Every structure is written in structure tokens, then in C-alpha cells.
Amino acid sequence: EPEVTQTPSHQVTQMGQEVILRCVPISNHLYFYWYRQILGQKVEFLVSFYNNEISEKSEIFDDQFSVERPDGSNFTLKIRSTKLEDSAMYFCASSLLNEQFFGPGTRLTVL
Amino acid sequence: SQQGEEDPQALSIQEGENATMNCSYKTSINNLQWYRQNSGRGLVHLILIRSNEREKHSGRLRVTLDTSKKSSSLLITASRAADTASYFCASEYGQNFVFGPGTRLSVLP
Fold this sequence. Notes:
A: mainly beta; B: five-stranded antiparallel β-sheet; 59% strand
């Protein structure tokens, strides 16, 4: 059964460093998403991506965030200069129509 | 209050009992979906109910949707210890979701 994969499963970084979180969506899906979940809190929408451009983003997704689909299979989330409060689980999701399929997440720890 | 609120926030039951979790939302939706999350793990899709549907079943899961009250419920029948997890509702607007804070379900053996 096709699934969304994410790498790495855990990323530890120093405050101020850049991180790139990687996702491989399900191959025939058209819509791609990033969400984050701060420990113990609810899942929050960050950004959606369709037809090689951002279709919607939340207020969380500020200038330090960017997304890219560089090669038709990967979908990446870049955080330019990490802050302590960026520590969270980051989930990628993809969909063809309504149902979003989530990856297992990347746990980002900013020290 | 926020879009996609679940209640209760935490629920503890004995194995074999039924568990009911509720979710409310604010504005009109395309559909509503329920997800399960084991501690520290990813989100697993459980069931999708469209705005024109009132009830949906999947195995031991039953989801209802009341668009007049802007609420949904997830019922897990004959619960098992393995059902212990957090359960989130996600209301869909266009292509994006708003998740509720989740209900932490503990099923005690």
C-alpha cells in the first residue's frame, strides 16, 4: 500500500541553524501539506502546495519557512533560522482529493 | 473557542466499554475526518464523513455528523487496550484542515 514517508525521523539542531525536512508524498497525489504539532498540543496547519506553488499558508508559516518540490517526488520544508519554539513534530501529508494521508512525522528538536 | 474542539479532553474507560468523543466546529465544512495518533507517532486516518452524510461506520467505529449543531461524534464500541491513543477531528475547508486539540483515550485492561 502506498504511503507518505518522511526523513529524518528525528532532527536535532542548534538555534539559528537551517533545517530541511523531507517528505516523499504518494506518487499520484496532487496536493501536499505540512503540519506541525508542538508536544502535547494540537496539530496545526502550516502550508498547502498545489501545481508547484503555495495555495494556502497559515500565520505560523512566516518568512523563515519555505517549501519546495524540487524533483517531482520530494516535498521539502525549510526553516531558515530555527528558534527554540520551532521544536515540534512536523507532519507531511498528501492527497488526491479529500482524504489526506499523513507521514510518520519528523521530530525537530532545537537546542 | 477554537474551530474543531473535541471533548472530553481525556477519557478513561475499561476494556469492553464504549468510548464516545465529540467534536464541534464553527463554520460550514466540506467534510470532517477523524484521526488517531499513538503517543509520539504519526496520524492515522480513521474515517471521513461528508457534509451531506449523517452517519458512517467502519468496523467498531461509528461517526455521526450534525451540521445543524456543527458537531460530530466518534464512537468506538467494545474498546480494547490497543485503542489507547489520542483521537483528533479535522474539519476541512477547501483543501485545508483545522484540527481540534484531541481527546486522549485510555482503555484499561
